[in-house]
Design goal:
This protein has 184 residues and is mainly alpha-helical. It has one domain. Strand 1 and strand 2 form a beta hairpin. Helix 2 runs antiparallel to helix 7 and helix 3 packs parallel to helix 7.
Length: 184
């Protein structure tokens, strides 16, 4: 946790989302100001956003391997970041797609690849998408620890699942590399 971060009175009052300043440029990615731009010139494609989520998951995993954070303190964020990266990569490869239903997206992806390239999607890709969808069908499991969360229904996550972190990382890397490498 950010225990050593000083928070000023100005931080409590000043808006977070503001118009870009005139001096937004910097010499390289490591020089200040530490900031980012969203919207307008900062708009990103689904594929670019998918890469950001994937990179964030990778950073947390690396922090675990480097013993900067305990694995159990960031498990759900890692799973969510990987899942969301994969969802956005599928949507990016299809140049569309709405909703969070990973099974429906997998079916749409299969149809898109067949129609666009005349090829079948390798079984391992669809199997992996369906495996994630089984645990987190609509992108609620890793955010709220429930399988379904709606105004009418809440279905608990249920069961116990062991996730071997090195295997998760390798599996998600393989899947993401394929999806990210598709035109989109």
């Amino acid at each position: 946790m950010a225990k050593d971060v000083f928070v000023s009175d100005d931080d409590l009052r000043r808006p977070i989302f503001t118009d870009p300043p005139g001096d937004i440029g910097r010499e390289d990615a490591w020089g200040g100001p530490y900031a980012f731009l969203i919207g307008g010139m900062g708009d990103s494609s689904r594929k670019e956003i998918a890469r950001e989520y994937f990179n964030a998951a990778e950073q947390l995993v690396q922090d675990i391997f480097d013993q900067r954070v305990e694995d159990y303190t960031v498990s759900m964020p890692i799973l969510f970041l990987y899942r969301h990266a994969i969802e956005l990569a599928v949507k990016g490869a299809m140049k569309g797609g709405d909703g969070h239903d990973l099974n429906a997206l997998a079916e749409g992806f299969q149809s898109h690849i067949k129609a666009s390239f005349g090829e079948d999607v390798p079984d391992w890709i669809i199997d992996r998408l369906r495996e994630v969808a089984e645990i987190d069908p609509r992108s609620t499991s890793f955010r709220y620890a429930v399988k379904i969360r709606s105004k009418k229904e809440v279905v608990p996550l249920g069961g116990e699942h062991f996730i071997d972190l090195p295997h998760l990382r390798r599996s998600m890397t393989a899947l993401f590399r394929v999806l990210d490498g598709l035109p989109g």
